[in-house]
Write a structure and sequence with these properties.
With 424 residues, this protein is mostly helical. The chain has helices spanning 2-21, 27-37, 41-66, 71-88, 96-125, 130-142, 145-159, 161-180, 199-203, 212-216, 219-240, 242-248, 254-281, 284-301, 308-337, 342-371, 375-387, 391-394, 416-423. It has one domain: MFS general substrate transporter like domains (Growth Hormone, Chain: A). It is globular. The two termini are 16 Å apart. Mean pLDDT is 83; it is low at 403-424.
Amino acid sequence: MRSLNRWWIAVAGVCLQMSLGAAYAWSVFRIPLSKEFGWTISQITLTFTISWFCLGCAAVLGGLWLHRTSPRVVAMTAGFLWGCGVFLASFSAHKLWWLYLTYGVLGGIGLGMGYIVPISVLVKWFPDRRGLITGIAVAGFGSGSLISAPVAHRLIERVGVLTTFAYLGIAYAIVAIASGSFMRLPPEGWTPEGWTPSAAQISQRCDRDFTLGEALGKWQWWALCLLMSINTMAGLSIVSQAAPIFQEMGKASAAAAAGLVGVISIGNGLGRIFWAWISDVTTRKTAFFLMYLAEAILFWTYHSISSLTILAVATFVVVMCYGGAYGITPAFTADYFGPRHVGPIFGLMMLPWAFASAFGPSLFAYLRQVTGTYTQGLYLIAGMMTVALILPILVSPPRSRDPEKAAPPEGAFLEAHEANDASQ
């Protein structure tokens, strides 16, 4: 029964993430907002940038709050804030500052607080499939625009861009709050029946649980931040401009571009599962190296693509690699610092990530605006990814110098308040 319960919790986690991941459909709103209110590319893209920056900051708060209250409370609060932010954006006619405040700040806070919950919960329910389950959990976030992008496009055509915000905000809140109500932690000391860590799993993991303060004192924590942040700068630059890229470089219609945004969101979700599975089969380091290598090759050649089909395929692969980092890094964090405090430790990683997520798309949009093409931005990203290939080679798990601090058997990591939550 326990095994069945944990899979239902996983399903709820994916639904929660899909509601939050609808934020990836932002590029569908760029052209309609520009036409209706005369805002520039950079001004509209800044909304997306603000929401992602707030996501990173709020993930820290969500991770810390998880250790003080029920994950259901955090998840349901996050769902309400996200839906409320999108709904209130419907009142932003000719008020760019209001769009920033509602969709950007309020919605972004909801995104960050909610994003960390399924990761923290499921990594404890699935110690036997740590990489795969975190990949599945965040795959919902990555594929959120699969439904929301084409739905948003049709709504914009029928009722206008601002009314679309209102409808979507209500829908997002309902799905996120309902899914968040299923989030709970396993009992203290729980492990899957008959499971023990393999030698390969042990070799990839630290020898004890680290507290948040201890993790911050390890260079590995900063290395994992850098790994995820660099990948985010590259992938999010493309994601934030996906619809215009398809229209400008691939000569697609607005409807076709919106549909392709939904299609590439499959790559975002699939990449989180695929690369997380690869990291389980090989190592987290190997998976990151392969992702970086694929991205470097694609970004060096991306500017020369004129065929819409080839452009869509290349973008799909880039977005797969972008999503892969979110599938691997939570498991990477649990491997290197233990699962007990993975919520706040991984949550705090989202803070430097927030700066990367803000800087990358903003710079990419600025270069497009001042040069008239995406070429310079693409070359910049290609060079960055090429240099960054050294990072996954260098990183290694921290080890305790004190044998008495060695970790207890896998699964004996949960605090008493977590057991109380699981019994509620």
